[in-house]
Amino acid sequence: MRIRKFNSVLTLGLLWANLALGVTVGTKADSPNQPPDKAQVTAALANLAVPFEANVGQVDPQVAFQARTLAGPLFVTKSGELIWSLGGKARHSQLPSQSQQPDTEAAPGWTVVERFHNGQPQPTGDNPQTTKVSYFRGNDSSKWQQGIPTFAQVNLGSVWPGIAVSLSARGKNVEKLFTLAPGADPNAIQLTVAGGNLAINAAGSLEVSHANQPIVSFTPPVAWQVNADGSQQPVAVTYRLVATSPGQYGFSLASYDPQRPVFIDPLLQSTYLGGTNEDEIQAIAVTSDAVYVAGYTWSTNFPGTSGGAQPNYGGSNFYSDDYYGDGMVAKLNLGLTSLLQSSYLGGTGGDRICAIAVTNAAVYVAGHTVSTDFPGTSTGTQPSNSGDGDGMVAKLNLGLTSILQSSYLGGTSGDSIQAMAVTNAAVYVAGYTGSTNFPGTSSGAQPTPGGGGDGMVATLNLDLTSLLQSTYLGGTDFDGISAIAVTSDAVYVAGYTWSDDFPGTSAGAQPSYGGYGDGIVAKFNLGLTSVLQSSYLGGNGYDYIYTMAVTNDAVYVAGSAESNNFPGTSAGAQPNPGGGDDGMVAKLNLELTSLLQSSYLGGSGHDYIHAIAVTNDAVYVAGWTASTNFPGTSGGAQPAYGDRGWGKAFVSMLSTDLGGNAGTNICELCLPSRGGWRAILK
């Protein structure tokens, strides 16, 4: 099944951009890698093995197996129905019964159901995988579901006399293989499709349409027999509509050897981009043997039976004010060809993971939650939600099969963790707080809030059972922190401010407020009891720092610049703005007292940088652009902007002095309707 998921395309494309940078989003990159060839990454993602997950109660009881492909879920019911959930925000309230047609009125989502007419499918799992799936929902550990088995294939058995059917999933594709034993009658194969009207187009594809609009199309089938020497002998095959039964199809085979088995393999291709609901990856960490990603998702389960709700889903309703669904964490092999483990992480409210860090002993994630029953917090440094949404931190084992500890972190107003760094001694988190009673600030560098909402930085022990220190960071207007990096002797943070009295800037590279909104960079001691130095970074417009990296001799920050007089760009790779909001990159000394170099990076449209990594030879940045004339793309993997969508992801390489653009690659991507591009690379 070749189904393309709208947000998966974006997410995985930006996942590629981040893998190219070799960064943990929101934290310092420890070992950046050279960007891989785009064609290799695309091929790797296309071949990503997707296991079938056995249903042990985590989804609708009528389901036997589910495969959560990159384009949306396929559900195999216990009676052998195949239910494809296609399109963005499907709102199907119940599993279609034998007598029901799927709800196709809730555009842009559709449910397409295939049934084996006069067949007797008996689904069983085949080829057990090492991959296990866990669901951590709510704070009642007795209700957690861990170690759910998965299988590489699902066999439906002898559906018709002498005709076996099996299923396997990879990337956005699901393969449905028919094996005809010698002498079996191919005319016995008849499938009924509910959810649209069937027609065979001029190319030989079988289209499923609704209201004269194609929903999905089955690509022309292929068939073959195996010769004595092991080679394949093609057999001509086409689709056949059953004239007496609208909605039914089968296959017509040309001449073949009836004494040998015949194999028929159709593929299902969707023309819509989307799954059951939205999914977003917001953070990534790469270790020596795995790739970890984290974010949040609404695509958690098969649709439930009560008012369109999904009863086994831990997170908030898609259309609620919480906005987020459940947090999610997943582990893939380095080649991106196998999903080793995944897990939900959230309570009954909205939960979102924004940052991830992996050590040799555990996986740490952090973000925001409005759930009052977030799992695993009972022995954490803050076991209860203080109100109006708190930051949250969680620690899982490397296999993602167990929550070792989690904790809330916040006061009585809104709090959110946006960035994380983990050392061998402590966990550091940073973000935003609207609380005047954020915990643990009394001995901090700034023990009281400045007003209007402040940045916050906190450090916890590695077990998440003790808050070692926290501090506000901000002036009398709005402030927030987007990035953090920890060295052997200091903690660096970066973000944004609207305050003209931001603390600690007097001796900084830019001591005074530049305009409507400035980027900020600050340096603390490791104990967070002293601001060693901070600095504004911005001009007469709105400027924002999203990401940072610290090397042995410099601090690099990147983000966006609306200002036409952003400081320090005169000798930069791009000294002048291109138009709209431009990306910007800047380099400061470690003391934050000198701006060594900065540069615009963008064309005549809007451009934003959300990820950065620095090697000995180059600075890599990635983000989003709406510019058709983005600089430096002529020798890139994709030199042209393309004609689809209203924005593209990009990856650029600059010299370490920011004085020369060493090349830019742009990856063509479509964007989600809810503006997820900004958050994904945050």
Give an overview in words.
With 682 residues, this protein is mainly β. Helix content is 4%, strand content 45%. The strands form six sheets. The chain has a 23-stranded mixed β-sheet that branches. Strand 38 (582-588) and strand 39 (595-601) form a beta hairpin. The longest helix is centred in the N-terminal third of the chain and has 16 residues, at 6-21. Mean pLDDT is 79; it is low at 1-43, 88-108, 269-276, 300-314, 317-322 and 665-682.
Keywords:
single chain; 682 residues; mainly beta; 23-stranded mixed beta sheet; four-stranded antiparallel beta sheet; 3 helices; 4% helix; disordered C terminus
Biggest sheet layout = 23 strands, mixed
Unreliable sequence segments: 1-43, 88-108, 269-276, 300-314, 317-322, 665-682
Strand percentage:
over 45%
Structural class determined from secondary elements? mainly beta
Using DSSP, what is the number of strands? 43
Radius of gyration, CA atoms, in whole angstroms: 27 Å
Task: Return the average pLDDT rounded to an integer.
Answer: 79
The portion of residues assigned to helices is under 10%
From the spread of the alpha carbons, the general shape counts as elongated
Distance between the termini: 32 Å
Report the total helices: 3
Offer a concise description of the structure.
With 682 residues, this protein is mainly beta. The longest helix is centred in the N-terminal third of the chain and has 16 residues, at 6-21.
What does the secondary structure layout of this molecule look like, with pairings?
Blueprint: E1 2-4, H1 6-21, H2 38-46, E2 49-50, E3 52-54, E4 63-69, E5 72-77, E6 82-86, E7 110-116, E8 124-137, E9 145-160, E10 163-170, E11 173-180, E12 191-194, E13 197-200, E14 206-210, E15 213-226, E16 232-234, E17 237-241, E18 248-253, E19 262-273, E20 279-286, E21 291-297, E22 326-332, E23 339-346, E24 351-358, E25 363-369, E26 390-396, E27 403-409, E28 415-422, E29 427-433, E30 454-460, E31 467-473, E32 479-486, E33 491-497, E34 518-524, E35 531-537, E36 543-550, E37 555-561, E38 582-588, E39 595-601, E40 607-614, E41 619-625, E42 648-654, E43 661-667, H3 676-680
Parallel strand pairs: 1-19, 8-23
Antiparallel strand pairs: 2-10, 3-4, 3-9, 4-5, 5-6, 6-7, 7-12, 8-9, 9-10, 10-11, 11-19, 12-18, 13-14, 14-15, 15-16, 15-19, 17-18, 20-21, 21-22, 22-23, 24-25, 25-26, 26-27, 28-29, 29-30, 30-31, 32-33, 33-34, 34-35, 36-37, 37-38, 38-39, 40-41, 41-42, 42-43
